[in-house]
Fold:
Amino acid sequence: MESLKGRDLLSLADLSASELNSLLELAAQLKKGEVQWRCNKVLGLLFSKASTRTRVSLTVAMYQLGGQVIDLLPNVIQVSRGEPLIDTARVLDRYLDVLAIRTFEQQDLETFAEYAKIPVINALTDREHPCQILADLLTSKECFGNLEGRTLTYVGDGNNVAHSLLLGCALAGMNVRVATPPKFEPNGEIVAQARQMAAGRTEVMITTDPVAAVTGSQVVYTDVWASMGQEASAGDRLPVFQPYQVNKELLAKAAPEAIVLHCLPAHRGEEITDEVMEGSRSRIWDQAENRLHAQKALLASILGNELSNFQ
Ligand code: CP
Ligand code: NVA
Structure:
């Protein structure tokens, strides 16, 4: 099993295909209780945006590994009074063993990682959400046994989740399709990076046609139409995104064995109907649970040999 000891996870592009595979294997083993890890380390959470799943699952993961967590509420620490990130990073580095950051700009995360020698985990930025996609791939693997050659289609806004899905699926050997309204396509640099990672072996499709994208897919995925920080444009987006709703009619185009995923929180009746969320294809609650197992594997791998593995 490949270790990520001492490494940052700022983007899924930081991982090789075999490292991703090792993480998913370890997550599955931890979930089944086949391996146990014990550590005495401290994780810091520095979240500048709201979070339920990421905050709680990282905290519980660290507790279950035997470690401890400090919630560094941004309004309580001195960054709220203007202490520079590069100073905060160097100080936190001296106390913590690993730090998870949720913020707006990817650049702020990268600056933090540059100045803190401890491993830094991207717990969501405007550009990427790698921790989420580890859980999504774990969930898909549980449903289909293997990921190679399966097709995941994301329908909605070309946002952070879409970006990390593009990279994660390309790395996992899945075909990945992203259907967005015109002008809401994913970032071109990330699409190019995903195509490079797929290296012609798997499909990377960007389209404005949700029906063409979903047709024959094994995984149908959506996320909110307006992400955190985009609330002001939420109303204007509603009519533009309406044709991209994941509903019974769109899902009927997917493969017969298709599952539905959503990173949550969902705006029921907007990007996804109640019927689909609660329907037989939905694996959304397993997906949410898998945040815990995937991140436990990530923390265990990053903390590496410091942990004792009691198999
Ligand atoms: N999916 C996800 O990251 O959820 P939270 O924003 O609640 O952490
Ligand atoms: N795209 C969403 C994901 C939330 C987990 C956001 O950034 O708000």
About this structure: The radius of gyration is 19 Å. The domain at 2-128+291-309 is CATH 3.40.50.1370 (Rossmann fold).
